[in-house]
Each structure stands twice: as C-alpha cells, then as structure tokens.
Backbone:
C-alpha cells in the first residue's frame, strides 16, 4: 500500500515520542472548536491542546478559574470531532485534579466522554502524586509549570 492510500489514523503518544526521537519538529497549537480543529488537522499539526484559556478567549470569563469540567469536555469533544490525525490533549480545569482519585476520574472523562488522547495538568513537584496516579491508570498526561 502506498502513502496516498494509507488510512488516516490518530497519532498516539508513542508516535509523538518516535517523531521526537527522529528529530522531527513537533508543532502544537491550541484549538477550542470544531472548525479550527479541522483546519489545523488538515494542515498537519500533530498535537492540539484544548486549553482552559477558552474561558477568557471564548466564554468571556475574567480568568481560567471559572472554567468547568462540563465546558472543557464540551470543547474537547468538538476538537476531537474536527480531527482525524492530531493527538488531542484536554486541559484539566482548576480543582479538577486536587487529589489522585479525583484526578483519575476526571481525566478518564476526557478520554471516555470527549475522546481526548491525553490530559494536561499544571504544577511541578507539587503535582507529582497526581501525574503518578494518572500514568498508573494508563492516562497519558502532559505537565505544564504554568503561572506557579
């Protein structure tokens, strides 16, 4: 089968790791909705983040703290529907991962309900227990130091 007839499939974390090891440049952009996700996916962007910044950018909130799980799941699902290839990462909103059990439950919702491939959480060393719990549960997680 040639490359033109290969079916399009969603990238995995392993694919991203291989691409990195091969020295490929790995752009990552933020998308909040279906049409933007389609454009970015068709342009070949390998990773899309559905950031909680959508609270300020799309919803008119004064901070990301107001963004709910329901809103993040809604927007993440729209981005997933707009993509065929990109790895989609859902940004876990404020206080949705305060404890390991809660983090696994909410991160699982991103994968199960919204179709995300991975989740993003903020924090460095203070979030190590959360990252460990997510990884043990088989949930790919991206860390971000953020405004700490």
Residues:
């Amino acid at each position: 089968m040639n490359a033109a007839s290969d079916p399009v499939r969603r990238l995995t974390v392993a694919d991203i790791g291989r691409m990195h090891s091969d020295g490929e440049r790995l752009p990552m952009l933020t998308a909040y909705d279906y049409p933007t996700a389609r454009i970015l996916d068709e342009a070949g962007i390998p990773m899309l983040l559905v950031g909680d910044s959508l609270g300020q950018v799309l919803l008119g909130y004064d901070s990301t703290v107001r963004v709910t799980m329901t809103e993040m799941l809604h927007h993440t699902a729209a981005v997933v529907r707009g993509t065929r290839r990109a790895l989609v990462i859902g940004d876990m909103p404020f206080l949705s991962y305060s404890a390991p059990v809660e983090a696994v439950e909410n991160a699982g919702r991103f994968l199960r309900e919204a179709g995300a491939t991975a989740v993003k959480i903020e924090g460095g060393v203070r979030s190590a227990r959360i990252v460990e719990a997510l990884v043990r549960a088989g949930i790919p997680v991206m860390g971000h130091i953020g405004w700490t």
In short: The first strand starts at residue 28 and ends at 30. The chain is about 40% helix and 15% strand. The mean pLDDT is 93. The beta strands are 28-30, 47-50, 87-91, 118-122, 141-144.
